Amino acid sequence: MKNILLYFTGTGNSLAVARYLAAKLPDTEIFSAVEVLRNARFNVDCASFGIVFPVCCQDIPEMVKRLVGNLKLPADAYVYAVATHNGDVGFSHFTLDRILKKNGRRLHAGFAVLMPGNSITTGNSTNSDQETDRRVKAAEACVSEIALRILSRETPPYCGSASLRKHLKGMRNMFRHRILYRVPNRFWTTDQCNLCGLCARICPENNITVSDAVRWGKRCQMCLACIHWCPNRAIQNGKGTMNQKRYHHPDIRIEDLMHRE
User: Fold this and answer.
1) What is the pTM of this model?
2) Residue 86, class by beta-carbon neighbours within 10 Å (0-12 exposed, 13-18 middle, 19+ buried)?
3) Which listed CATH number (3.40.50.360, 3.30.980.10, 3.40.50.720, 1.20.1270.90) goes with 3-167?
């Protein structure tokens, strides 16, 4: 029986990790979580099921919660997750396990891979070029170790913590993103925007429309794909991103993230 691996990504880190992992796991097929959710393909027949996602405010992205809550997995499937993060996995794996338990399943293993950061909207910079290069190179070796543990169907303690401190940190981070910095509401474009529509085609939530101007709706996942992939650096968020460098994983192409033609 085949093995299924889903990914959700904004700047390519989680897709890169999913590809590294699939190359080391026999008979593994990769699918975009966005497409699975959009096409409502929730009945999954597989021997093992994995999902790779970026940590967002100590937790899993809202779209991943939505997807996992609808999945129908075989009772004997080995279920694992890999969180890509910029230093803190938080309680993401514990959230996944809680959602899976509602459908009678459990998360058998929750792994983590340190990747370059992309959060430039809340006053944070991306990593230095040297640190970015180091993390990208180290990730493949880390994934190799994870693959061996998956093949052995290990059930180690989840990476991260579900402590009260982590939950409070997650609440603080979400407050900063959505209330203090109002990230979903502060996107705008400079005169460098040529209305190419690329941002709309890579937005996982179809939250961006392009006509006489670029407009953002109310379903932002804060994946930051639009701001990092804009070929003209025309997309900004508030005033603080003007001089911030952009990042996307060097092994991922923009075509890999197209959700709409």
Assistant:
1) 0.95
2) middle
3) 3.40.50.360
